[in-house]
Design a protein that fits this description.
alpha/beta, Rossmann fold, six-stranded mixed β-sheet, two-stranded antiparallel sheet
Length: 385
């Protein structure tokens, strides 16, 4: 029996089987811990003699409080929701969420406003809200919207500063009367004050500092088209894509489009100015047809040489891979900048289909991962050429 088969049996049978199957690898241990948090509370399993200890012997905890100790940190409901969407395929996630709500009646996930009222809004909670909002009652959904708005506002404040800096403008060689550190002309200042050099002290005394002016970046007629995979594993990138599009929206001469896709394509450009509302409309999950999304994005391009098409996806294509590569190559050949971003978030730590990504790179796309600030800098650099 192969190692993957043994690990699957270990996950099914629990910790007592470890003597026969061997210890779990790190990723499988995380899956075991997530399963133990939910199914370890099953009284039927207790009567059958199945142990509830999982992942290092720590018993599953059903509270929303963390405890100390030498074992693994205790999962909260929010942690668990985030973990299962990272660790399991879509069909398994749906079963786990359904069991949590219906079989084990973990009501705080979708029906208890007190949970959302007392939890401090953060990115992990935002991800959990977006993944489960389709299960929420209207009362809880109203509280969830408050969380979405709070976290989005924080992300907007941070990214807006980075975007402004990226588009601030390049320095020219003309003198400026605006005296600030960003415009300081080091070489010009040295030349202008050489007469005040004191050899004995080996110091240059500055009487007349020099500063440079800045030129305005030319952004007329450029387009930024963001195509965002809304599968469950891409939730962090979906959040940051919405915020990035909102920050880029008001820049002069730059038209921004935001399109979400799974097996269908939804143009969300009309909601870009309100990223919180936009995120509440996103439907996470489903299949992935990247080719269809890229074809739609290509149809939005007005001037190919003044357009950037960014595909944010893990590149696990459920549609026509050959058609996708062909469409990307066509865009590149007509002069469009094509980005294939396996992640667009603060960590920029992607998990993706390397085979498809390599084919897109061979077709001329720039493939990698970026933070939102780096994407803004990339756009500013291309526009400023």
């Amino acid at each position: 029996m192969t190692t993957p088969d043994l690990e699957r049996w270990r996950l099914i049978l629990g910790a007592p089987a470890e003597e026969s199957t061997g210890a779990l690898a790190e990723l499988s241990a995380e899956r075991d811990r997530a399963l133990g948090w939910l199914y370890g509370r099953d009284p039927e399993l207790e009567r059958q003699g199945v142990r509830t200890e999982r992942a290092g012997g720590a018993p599953p905890d059903r509270s929303d409080d963390r405890t100390g100790g030498d074992g693994p940190s205790v999962l909260t409901t929010v942690d668990w929701l985030d973990a299962i969407h990272r660790l399991f395929p879509k069909e398994t996630i749906e079963r786990l969420e359904r069991d949590a709500v219906e079989r084990y009646e973990i009501h705080e996930i979708v029906t208890d406003p007190a949970v959302l009222e007392r939890i401090e809004p953060d990115k992990a909670l935002l991800r959990a809200v977006l993944r489960t909002k389709h299960l929420m009652s209207p009362e809880v959904l109203a509280l969830a919207r408050r969380i979405v708005e709070a976290v989005v506002r924080e992300l907007m404040d941070k990214l807006a500063t980075e975007v402004r800096e990226s588009f601030h403008g390049t320095r020219s060689r003309r003198p400026s009367r605006i005296k600030n550190s960003r415009n300081f002309d080091f070489h010009g200042t040295v030349r202008a004050n050489l007469a005040h050099y004191r050899p004995d002290d080996r110091r240059l005394y500055i009487e007349h500092p020099r500063f440079l002016s800045r030129t305005r970046r030319h952004v007329e007629q450029w387009q930024m088209i963001l195509l965002v995979d809304q599968s469950g594993s891409m939730v962090g990138s979906v959040i940051h894509a919405a915020v990035t599009a909102a920050c880029l929206w008001g820049l002069p001469g730059l038209r921004t489009h935001l399109v979400a896709f799974d097996t269908s394509v939804v143009d969300l450009t009309s909601d870009v100015t309100d990223p919180a509302e936009l995120l509440m409309k996103v439907q996470l999950g489903g299949g992935t047809d990247i080719c269809r999304a890229v074809t739609y994005g290509a149809g939005l391009v007005d001037n190919p040489r003044r357009a950037i098409v960014a595909v944010v996806s893990d590149f696990y294509e459920g549609g026509d891979v050959h058609g996708l590569v062909r469409e990307v190559r066509r865009l590149v050949e007509q002069g469009t900048h094509v980005l294939g971003l396996a992640a667009l978030d603060e960590e920029a730590n992607p998990s993706y289909d390397r085979g498809t990504a390599q084919r897109l790179a061979d077709a001329g796309a720039h493939v990698g991962a970026m933070t939102p600030g780096r994407l803004a800098a990339f756009v500013a650099e291309r526009i400023g050429r």
